[in-house]
Specification:
heterotrimer; A alpha/beta; B alpha+beta; C alpha/beta; A: alpha/beta; Rossmann fold; Arc Repressor Mutant, subunit A; four-stranded antiparallel sheet; 8 helices; 13 strands; 43% helix; C: alpha/beta; D-Maltodextrin-Binding Protein, domain 2; 2 domains; seven-stranded mixed sheet; 13 helices; 36% helix
C-alpha cells in the first residue's frame, strides 16, 4: 500500500517509515501541511496518516480541506493528546479513525484494514497465487472456486505468507506478528493456525511447508 | 507556558537546593575541623614556663568518624614548628578566632582550619597556632549525594507540579463554588460540610473570592492546554521508542534478544497507558467540574464506540456484540460518556480470553438508563469489588495484562458527575458484568 | 606442596640495598627471579609461612622475598629510604596508619575488599588480616594456691595481697623501647583508668621491663616471672611449654591488635601485590580470622570484652611528640618507683 505520513517529528517519522516498509508498504513523508498538500496534489495514496500538532497549522484544518476537496483517501489521525479532549472533534471533522501514540502497528494494520474495507465496500483487492485467490479486505480465500472466510488470526498469518511467498518465517517472528505483546502466547499457537490454514489450502497446488529447524514458507508446486 | 515555568522552577529548585546543601556540608566539615583545632588548643598548658600540649584522642579521631579521612595537623609557637606535619600549609591569621582554607597537601585536596591563642611563657608572650586539616572524601561523597537528591527533587517537583497543578486547581475551586451558593454543583465526592450562609459583613470577602474564582477558571483553561502539551511531550518519545523497538524485533534473531525487545515494548505500552490514563483523568476532572448538559442519543453512542473498538477486539479474537439496545436519551457530556463506555469495553477486551464474546445491552428501569457490559472472562474477585474503583488498584486476576488500574476510577468519576453510578458484579456462570446507570 | 625454601639469615647485614636494619630474610621459590613479590614484615618467617605456602600453592610461578624487620625499621624502609617493597605487613597499627595517612600507601579496592567489616579497613589503604588479643601470661607454678586472676581488678588484688611472692616477678613491656608495648599501653589507658592503678601496683613490685614478648614468655616459662602483662596471646600460644603457664584474656576488656597489610606507593609490582592482598583477605573474611593464623584464645573470649584498636587518625595522636613525651613521663612516674 502507499501511505502518506504527515508528521513533524523526524525521528518518529523515520521509525514509522522503516516499520511500514518492513511490510512492503511505500511511505511518503511530509513534515508539514504545505508539503502534505504538494504530495496529495501529485500522487494517489491508499491511506493518509496525520499528526494533529504540526508546525504550520493544526492537522484538523487539513482534515477539513481534505474532505471539502472530496478526496476519497481515508485518513487515520495519530494523536499524542488526551483522548478525552480530541475524540469527538476529530471524528466529526471527517477522520476515518484515530490512534493515540505510541502506535501499536498490529492495531494500525487492523484499523487500516477496517477503514479500507468500509471505504471500498465491495471493491476487489484480490491477490492471485497458484490456484488460489486471496482478498485481504474481505478476508476471503478462494480455493478452486470455493470461498473460505478467514478468521482474524488466520487472515493475518496468511497475509504474512502471501506477501512474501517462498520466504521462510521462523515461528518466533510469526508469533510477534500475530499476537499483541501483552499476551503470553506459545509457539504452539502458531502451529495451530498454520494447521488451520493448511486445511483451507487442501485441494490446491499451494501449501505451507515446514522447513525443519527454520520455520514455515508458502509454496506453489 | 506552565510546563516551561514548572521546568524553570524545577531547575531553580535544583540549583538552590544544591548550593545550600553544599554550603551546609562545607560548614559542617568546617565545624568539625574547628572543634578539633580548638580541642588541641585547649589542651595546651604552660608548665614551669614551657608550653606543653596533650592532644586529646578525640581531636584527630573525630575527623574520621563518618568516612575514612586522612588527617594532618601542625602545632607552631611563634612561627616555630613544634609538632605534627611541618610542611602543612599555613593560613594567614585573620580577625576571626578560626580561619579556614581549601588547598592541597601531599597531592590531595584538603580543608584546613587554624586557630590561635597567646600564652605567657618565660620568654614573654608566645603565640600558639594550631592547624588541623582533613581530606575531602566524605565531603565530596555527600556533595555527590546531595547532587543526586537535588536533581531528584527538581525532577520530582516538575512531575508533581504537572499532576498537582490540576488537582489543586480543582480542589481550590470547590470551596469557592460552595461559598457562592452553587450547592447543586457539588459532586458526590465532596465530603466537607456546607458552609453557613455568608453574613453581610463578609460580602467583600465573597466578592474577592469571586474574582479569585474567575482568575482560577482562567488558569484552569490554561491548564487544559498544558495537559495537552504535556501529553504530547510524553507520548512522542514513547512512540519513537516503541516503533524502533518493533523494527528491531523484526531484525534480531536471537531469542533472548527478541525476548528483551518484547519486554521493552510491553514496558512502553504499560507506561504510555498509565500516562494516558493520568492525563485522561486530569481532563475528566476538568470537564466534570463544569459539566456540559447536552442531549445524548445513548444507543447510537454505544454503537459508535463498539465500532471503534472493533479492530482491537478482532486482534484479540474477542467479539463485541450489541444486544437489545433500547432507544434512550440522557443529559450529559458526550465526550465523557463515551470515554466511560470505552474504558469499560477496553477492560472487558483486555481481561477476557480469546474466542469469547462481550455483550453490550441498554435498557431502562427505575428511572435509570442502564448499560450492561457482560464478558466471559475471569470475573472479579468478590472480596475486592469495592477496592477496584480506587485509584491504581488492579484486580488480583489481572496478572500479566497491561493496564494502570485508573480506567475504572475514571469511569467512576464520570458516572458520579452525571449523578449515576458504576456497579460491578459477576455473572451467574462465568465472566463479569459492569453496569453503568445514568439518570433519565 | 613441596617446595624448596631457601632461608638466608642475615643478622645485621649492612649492605647498600638495606640501609635499614633487617632481622631475617627468606626467599620462597626461584631465588634468581628478578621480579619477586617483596614483602617486608614485622612477623617471623615461621608465623607467616602458612600464608605464603597457601599463596604459592595457588600461584607456584610467583617467588616471594620475605624480609623481617622491627616496626620502626619497616616504617623507615618505606617512608625514608623508599625501598621498592610490594607489601608491608606490620603489627604496629599506628605506624601503618601513619604510612597511609602520609601518602606512602596505594589505594586498593577489589571484589575481595567490598564486604569487609568497617574495622578491617582504613581509607582503602590499610587492611587488617588478623585479630590478636593481648592478655596476661600467668605462671602456673608461681600462682600455685592462688586463684588465677581473670581481670585487671583481680590481678591488682592478687599483686597487692601478696607483695612478697610477686616482688621482682612481674613483667611488662618497656613502652620506651617497644612500639607494640606503647600501642597497648596507650589503648589500655584510653579504655580504662584501671590501667594506671595496675601500673602503679606493678611499680611497687620492682617490675622487669622487656623489649619483646618472646623474652617475657621465656621468663614465665623458666620461672623468673609470675605474670607478664600485655602479651599477645598469639605469641604465647606458639610456645612449646604450654603446661607452664595460663593465658588469660582479661574479662573486663582485652585489647585486640589488628595485624595489617598495605601496598606502598614504592611498589614495583602493584598488580601482583594486589593479588596477594586479595588472596589474604579472601582467606580471612567473612569470619575475620584466617584459619592459617588463628589465635585460639580469640575464639574462647567473650565477644563483648574484645576491644579492637580502631584504625584512623586517632592513632596518630599517640605518635605526637608532646603526647608521647607526656604519656611516657606519666608511665615512668607510675612504674619506675624508687
Amino acid at each position: 500500500m502507499r501511505f502518506l505520513l504527515i508528521e513533524d517529528n523526524q525521528a518518529l517519522a523515520n521509525a514509522v517509515i522503516e516499520r511500514l516498509s518492513l511490510d512492503s508498504h511505500i511511505v511518503d513523508h511530509a513534515a508539514n501541511l504545505t508539503t502534505a498538500w504538494d504530495y496529495t496534489a501529485t500522487a494517489e495514496y491508499d491511506l493518509i496518516l496525520l499528526d494533529i500538532m504540526l508546525p504550520d497549522g493544526d492537522g484538523r484544518s487539513f482534515l477539513e480541506q481534505h474532505r471539502s476537496a472530496k478526496s476519497r483517501t481515508p485518513v487515520i489521525v495519530l494523536t499524542a493528546r488526551s483522548e478525552v479532549s480530541d475524540r469527538v472533534g476529530i471524528l466529526d471533522l471527517g477522520a476515518d479513525d484515530y490512534m493515540v501514540k505510541p502506535i501499536d502497528f498490529s492495531e494500525l494494520e487492523a484499523r487500516c484494514r477496517a477503514v479500507l474495507r468500509r471505504q471500498t465496500g465491495a471493491a476487489q483487492n484480490t491477490i492471485h497465487f497458484g490456484e488460489i485467490e486471496f482478498d485481504s479486505l474481505a478476508a476471503t480465500l478462494k480455493v478452486n472456486g470455493t470461498e473460505v472466510k478467514l478468521r482474524t488470526k488466520e487472515l493475518r498469518l496468511f497475509e504474512v505468507f502471501i506477501n512474501a511467498p517462498n520466504q521462510i518465517f521462523p515461528k518466533s517472528q510469526l508469533l510477534d506478528r500475530l499476537f499483541s505483546y501483552d499476551v503470553e502466547a506459545s509457539e504452539n499457537a502458531i502451529e495451530v493456525y498454520v494447521g488451520r490454514l493448511r486445511k483451507h489450502l487442501i485441494g490446491s497446488n499451494v501449501s505451507i511447508t515446514t522447513v525443519r529447524g527454520l520455520g514455515y514458507k508458502l509454496e506453489c508446486q | 507556558m506552565l510546563l516551561l515555568s514548572a521546568a524553570g522552577i524545577a531547575i531553580l529548585l535544583y540549583v538552590v537546593v544544591q548550593s545550600v546543601a553544599e554550603q551546609i556540608a562545607q560548614e559542617s566539615q568546617d565545624n568539625i575541623l574547628a572543634a578539633s583545632a580548638i580541642s588541641i588548643l585547649d589542651s595546651a598548658r604552660v608548665v614551669e614556663g614551657d608550653i606543653s600540649i596533650d592532644l586529646p584522642y578525640s581531636s584527630l579521631s573525630m575527623l574520621d568518624s563518618v568516612t575514612d579521612e586522612r588527617a594532618f595537623y601542625a602545632i607552631r609557637l611563634n612561627d616555630e614548628f613544634l609538632s605534627g606535619y611541618p610542611d602543612l600549609p599555613r593560613i594567614a591569621a585573620t580577625n576571626d578566632a578560626t580561619a579556614f582554607q581549601s588547598t592541597t597537601y601531599l597531592g590531595e585536596d584538603i580543608r584546613i582550619a587554624s586557630t590561635w591563642r597567646s600564652f605567657s611563657t618565660l620568654e614573654g608572650q608566645a603565640y600558639l597556632e594550631i592547624s588541623v586539616a582533613q581530606t575531602l572524601t566524605g565531603l565530596n561523597q555527600s556533595i555527590a549525594r546531595i547532587s543526586r537528591i537535588s536533581l531528584a527533587i527538581g525532577f520530582g517537583f516538575f512531575l508533581l507540579s504537572m499532576v498537582v497543578a490540576m488537582v489543586i486547581a480543582q480542589s481550590t475551586i470547590r470551596p469557592l463554588h460552595r461559598l457562592t451558593g452553587s450547592v447543586s454543583r457539588r459532586g458526590p465526592s465532596d465530603l466537607r460540610p456546607v458552609a453557613a450562609p455568608v453574613p453581610t459583613e463578609m460580602a467583600p470577602l465573597v466578592t474577592s473570592l469571586n474574582s479569585l474564582m474567575t482568575r482560577l477558571q482562567k488558569s484552569l483553561s490554561r491548564s487544559e492546554d498544558f495537559i495537552a502539551e504535556a501529553a504530547h511531550r510524553v507520548r512522542t518519545p514513547m512512540a519513537i521508542v516503541r516503533t524502533q523497538a518493533e523494527v528491531t524485533l523484526r531484525r534480531v534473531e536471537k531469542e533472548e534478544h527478541r525476548q528483551a525487545v518484547r519486554e521493552m515494548i510491553r514496558a512502553v505500552d504499560e507506561s504510555s497507558r498509565t500516562a494516558g490514563q493520568l492525563l485522561d483523568h486530569a481532563m475528566v476532572s476538568f470537564r466534570t467540574d463544569d459539566l456540559a448538559r447536552e442531549t445524548i442519543q445513548l444507543d447510537d453512542l454505544i454503537v459508535d464506540t463498539v465500532n471503534r473498538l472493533h479492530p482491537i477486539s478482532e486482534l484479540r479474537d474477542v467479539e463485541i456484540k450489541t444486544h437489545k439496545l433500547t432507544r434512550t436519551k440522557i443529559q450529559g457530556d458526550p465526550i465523557l460518556v463515551q470515554n466511560a463506555i470505552q474504558n469499560v469495553l477496553d477492560n472487558a477486551v483486555k481481561y477476557t480470553d480469546a474466542d469469547t464474546k462481550i455483550t453490550v445491552m441498554l435498557d431502562q428501569s427505575d428511572g435509570y438508563a442502564q448499560i450492561r457490559v457482560q464478558d466471559e472472562g475471569r470475573g472479579f474477585d468478590d472480596t475486592e469489588i469495592d477496592q477496584l474503583l480506587q485509584r491504581f488498584e488492579r484486580g488480583k486476576n489481572a496478572d500479566g495484562i497491561v493496564g494502570s488500574g485508573l480506567g475504572l476510577t475514571i469511569v467512576d468519576d464520570i458516572m458520579r458527575a452525571h449523578g449515576g453510578r458504576i456497579t460491578l458484579s459477576n455473572n451467574v456462570g462465568e465472566g463479569a458484568c459492569v453496569t453503568l446507570s445514568f439518570p433519565l | 606442596m613441596r617446595h624448596v625454601i631457601l632461608s638466608i639469615v642475615m643478622w645485621l647485614l649492612a649492605n647498600v640495598a638495606h640501609a635499614f636494619e633487617i632481622e631475617d630474610r627468606a626467599v620462597f621459590g626461584d631465588e634468581t627471579d628478578s621480579a619477586p613479590l617483596r614483602i617486608v614484615s614485622t612477623a617471623d618467617i615461621n608465623y607467616f609461612k602458612p600464608i605464603i605456602d597457601a599463596f604459592r600453592a595457588f600461584r607456584p610461578d610467583v617467588t616471594i622475598d620475605y624480609t623481617v624487620a622491627s616496626s620502626t625499621e619497616v616504617m623507615d624502609a618505606i617512608s625514608r629510604e623508599k625501598h621498592p617493597f610490594d607489601i608491608v605487613i606490620s603489627s604496629a597499627m599506628d605506624l601503618q596508619t601513619k604510612l597511609a595517612n602520609d601518602g606512602f600507601a596505594r589505594k586498593h579496592t577489589s571484589l575481595a575488599t567490598q564486604d569487609l567489616p568497617n574495622w578491617a579497613v582504613w581509607n582503602d589503604m590499610v587492611y587488617a588480616f588478623t585479630q590478636e588479643p593481648a592478655g596476661f601470661v600467668i605462671s602456673n607454678a608461681l600462682f600455685k594456691g592462688l586463684p588465677i586472676p581473670q581481670n585487671r581488678q583481680q590481678l591488682i588484688t592478687a599483686l597487692r595481697q601478696n607483695p612478697d611472692r610477686f616482688k621482682g616477678r612481674v613483667g611488662t613491656y618497656d613502652i620506651r623501647k617497644s612500639g607494640a608495648g606503647y600501642l597497648f599501653a596507650t589503648q589500655d589507658a584510653r579504655a580504662s583508668d584501671t590501667y594506671w592503678r595496675l601500673t602503679e601496683v606493678m611499680g611497687t613490685l620492682d617490675p622487669t621491663l622487656y623489649c619483646c614478648a618472646s623474652a617475657m614468655i621465656d621468663d614465665v616459662v623458666n620461672g623468673d616471672l609470675a605474670v607478664a602483662y600485655n602479651v599477645l596471646a598469639s605469641y604465647a600460644e606458639k610456645s612449646p611449654h604450654q603446661d607452664k603457664f595460663t593465658i588469660i584474656l582479661p574479662s573486663d576488656f582485652s585489647i585486640v591488635m589488628l595485624r595489617t597489610m598495605l601496598i606502598p606507593k614504592t611498589s614495583d609490582n602493584p598488580v601482583l601485590a594486589a593479588e596477594f592482598l586479595d588472596f589474604v583477605l579472601a582467606q580471612t573474611y567473612p569470619s575475620g580470622v584466617s584459619p592459617l593464623l588463628k589465635t585460639q584464645s580469640l575464639g574462647q573470649a567473650e565477644q563483648s570484652t574484645l576491644y579492637r584498636i580502631s584504625m584512623g587518625p586517632g592513632l596518630l595522636v599517640y605518635l605526637d611528640y608532646f603526647k608521647k613525651k607526656n604519656f611516657i613521663a606519666e608511665w615512668e612516674n607510675a612504674i619506675v618507683q624508687d
